[in-house]
Predict the 3D structure of the following.
Amino acid sequence: GVQVVCASGRHALLNVFIPIKKMSEGDPGRAAAAALTWDWAKNVFVFDEDIDVYNPTEILWALATRVQPHRQISIIPEIMRGSLIDPSMEDPRKTSVMIVDATKPLDRPFSPVSKCPDEALARIELEEFVPGEILQHIPVDRTTYWA
């Protein structure tokens, strides 16, 4: 079974996040195609099951480290009926869709998710490395910032 997550909140409308256990290179495309049968799906992101699709930090990490845009992002122009809540559409009868395959390749070794141990994070004093005018924009609770 495939779990499909449709993010809630107005900032996430039209986005679909799918974690899968990838068995073949075609699996992300098949999962995305199935999701695109839903009228509200505009941007479909497919991740490996080791990514928590409810955690924005993990989503952004996977997008940054598992995607080569020229290979793993597909844009299908004006193929679907759009949603009236999408102000970017010029013609309400059609919209483009984006599919992002943020899964690891199966044909070669790939680094696992790397996380810094909590005890190492506790020893880091950002004030020693980052100027104050930049540091003021970094959240005070840096445990979630680095998670």
User: Anything to note?
Assistant: Helices lie at 27-35, 56-66, 69-72, 118-123, 132-135, 142-146. The first strand starts at residue 5 and ends at 6.
